[in-house]
Amino acid sequence: MTPVATPLDKLNIFSLKGLQMKTFHITWLTFFFCFFAWFGMAPLMKIAREQLHLTKDQVGNIQIASVSATIIARLLIGRLVDKFGPKLIYTWLLVLCAIPVLLIGTSQSYTSFLLFRLAIGVIGASFVITQFHTSIMFAPGIKGTANATAGGFGNAGGGAANLFMPLIASGFTALGFCSAADSWRFAMIFPGVMLLLCAFLYHRYTLDSPQGDFKDLNKEGIKSSRNTFMIAAKDYRTWILTIAYAACFGVEITVDNFAPIFFTDSFGATIAVAGMVAGIFGWINVFARPLGGIVADKIGKTYGFNGKTLLLAVLLLIEGFGIIWFAKSGSIGMCIFMMFLFGLSLKMANGATYSLVPFINPLAVGSVAGIVGAGGNIGAMLIAYMFKVKAVHAVKDFTENGLTVQKDLIDYTGAFTLLGFIILGVGLAVFIFRTVMAQKRSGMEELVLSTGN
């Protein structure tokens, strides 16, 4: 590959021409399998829960562990990417995280399963690298679209995991490799191998920036050595976006983790059906998150930073109302429809948030992305804890083969309702602060000067 001098000013997703587009496609594909590995256990939790005899509290702790490690990882990765570049950091992240993904199937107890799930959560930091790499490869007017499209395509890995992991597990059983009870152990081998393959592709076929790798730019004195984390942390707008991202991406992670169990326990759906239904939520990312970035870029050209922030506030308000209605749905059909509705606004809000991130401070894109991204996981961790506390045991009648049977289940209706009201509050807060945020210089001038666009 021959590096070019400037970021690309248009995004053609059907093109592999040039360093920027090759990097774009490798980045989102790598991110896709990171999310696939991260949430690979979610649709198989019912099997693992029964085999390892996990209690309600233990399941809650495991869900919290799956997102908590990502918080520190995203903060650290943001600073490391600013300093060492995305290629090196992504490669090492993929190799190291493949280890717990491959080994979680050896778990024989709650403690070992919890620790592996905690370690797998580190792979969620891949999002920060993806957003940094697309930000640096594309010009200011297209950054929101590029970030949201790469993020949306990659986030779809969570939906793909819900859809395909039960099928992969069933496939291992059908081929005689294992029993149905052990199928989850063998199924996790697939995402672990894919992470190693992605590590090779990323290291072999990408560069850190259009100008070349950071190690070469550092030698030439082009790359700044300033403490980018402190630059990002001192800007209050970083923290407003962090709270907003907790209210959209934090909810996305929650739904990815809890939706399969919610549909099996609330409506008596099978693991395969629940995974397929929950997978709809993940696949919305393919078009909804890019749509959020595209709309934000178009609004930004006319109404600037204030317009983008107003869009984010409106999307959060729609999300909040949708979640409340979802929780109150009495049928699986209405539940699926409402999940699609609030999922659409939620994922557009994800894209709108990261259309703002590159313009907080162009010298600290990685660190801003890391802090805001960590906010998503802090939100997910707090929500998971709330679900653990608010969940209640219940006995419900289900019809199977013409017979009425009673099953113990975990009811998350109250937790989803409370979550909806919390999101409404965050949406109102962003709406109130949007004008204050816009009054501070957005960084567009510095970006234009630094990129030559």
UniProtKB/TrEMBL annotation:
GO terms for cellular component: membrane. It holds the Pfam family MFS_1. SUPFAM superfamilies: MFS general substrate transporter. InterPro entries: MFS, MFS_dom, MFS_trans_sf, NO3_transporter. Residues 23-443 form the Major facilitator superfamily (MFS) profile domain. It is a multi-pass membrane protein. Its main location: membrane. Belongs to the major facilitator superfamily. Nitrate/nitrite porter (TC 2.A.1.8) family. This is MFS transporter, NNP family, nitrate/nitrite transporter. It comes from Pedobacter hartonius.
